[in-house]
């Protein structure tokens, strides 16, 4: 019997495939800047271990471009984006590492929904192909799906 509750099963790994317009730039961004281990590859795609999940960058220049934005908590958040929820210490360390590397953020590291259910640290950036990424943390992880 399958569980359709939407909750993650213990040991579940998410798979996401995204378009890129330059595999070398994608490898430098995900592999070098983020330190993601590389997996299988071809001349058209590269697998990465993205914080324990499978991220595949596919060479598809016609599919690349900057996502439109929508207002969230007073910021223009990219509508199409992906990322991970980190432990607060890991989130702070990643933000500091990216800032030290001179990374350009589209939304700087900060706290959203302050004092409300789901209060979270978050920041957004673009990969070289224009894919938007969000990294967030919550002091109370049980607030991730708070209404």
From TrEMBL:
Pfam families tied to this protein: Glyoxalase
InterPro entries, per database record: Glyas_Bleomycin-R_OHBP_Dase, Glyas_Fos-R_dOase_dom, VOC_core
PROSITE patterns membership: VOC
Domain VOC: 12-138
Alphabetical list of Gene3D superfamilies matching this protein: 2,3-Dihydroxybiphenyl 1,2-Dioxygenase, domain 1
Listed name of the protein: VOC family protein
Source organism: Hyphococcus lacteus
């Amino acid at each position: 019997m399958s569980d359709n509750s939407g909750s993650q099963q213990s040991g579940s790994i998410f798979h996401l495939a995204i378009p890129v317009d330059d595999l070398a730039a994608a490898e430098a961004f995900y592999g070098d800047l983020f330190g993601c281990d590389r997996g299988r590859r071809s001349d058209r795609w590269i697998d990465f271990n993205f914080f324990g999940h499978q991220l595949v960058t596919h060479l598809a220049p016609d599919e690349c471009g900057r996502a439109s934005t929508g207002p969230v908590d007073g910021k223009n958040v990219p509508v199409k984006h992906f990322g991970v929820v980190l432990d607060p210490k890991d989130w702070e360390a990643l933000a500091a590492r990216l800032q030290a590397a001179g990374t350009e953020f589209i939304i700087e590291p900060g706290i959203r929904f302050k004092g409300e259910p789901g209060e979270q640290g978050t920041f957004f950036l673009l990969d070289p192909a224009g894919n938007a990424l969000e990294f967030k943390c919550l002091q109370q992880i049980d607030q991730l799906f708070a209404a």
